[in-house]
Amino acid sequence: MRADDVMTRNVITVGPDMTVQALAALLSKRGISGTPVVDLDDHVVGIVSEGDLLHRAELGTERQGKRRSSWWLEDLAVGLARDYVKSHGRTVGDIMTREVVTVSEETELAEVATLLETKRIKRVPVMRYGKIVGIVSRANLVRALGATRVAFAPEDGNADNDRSIRAQLLAELANKKWTSGIWAEDIVVHGGIVHLWFGSDEPEEKQQAMRVAAENIAGVGRVTEHIVPVPLLPTV
Fold it and tell me: Between vectors from CA 171 to CA 216 and to CA 196, what angle results, nearest 5°?
């Protein structure tokens, strides 16, 4: 499987001039833990995550200068300066990571997994001709694994057919008024089987409509539904 088989296509991005407070509100509202940062030409210039918001002066959580000792005082000073920017910077451009690891749509998932592990990152933007077209996260890989019938099964030669089925289903669902809250990453196709993920609070009618849409696509052998428990918010 490749990056474009599992990637999230409707990527939420932000600009480097967005305020830190606006970023925090966006991450909370959309239920995401990070997002690419793009310029006016839609080129990726950085990436920002919840980790960049942990140590903030407003919360009293900024680092207290207790970094591991360094052989070089200059290196220590650079680290302390970086910490100060993270805790006091006002914009996304101040706190974002500028060295962004990216992949292409054709990148194999094995390579994506290796990058996430070795680089110690949780997501990687997917690029086409220098512009972002998707993002693959650890969660995307976990769902892709759940869609495989046998662990470490060899490629069955139907990868192109699976991609075609997924593309047709996404096209069918596009702009349908009842599809709000349904994301591309909730759809994985493997071996002609369409796997659909729903929250436990998703209306049964919407689940049925999704199943019918998938079943009407030529080449689909079966539709499997996965229900993910949605935690209840505590009452006050």
Answer: 60
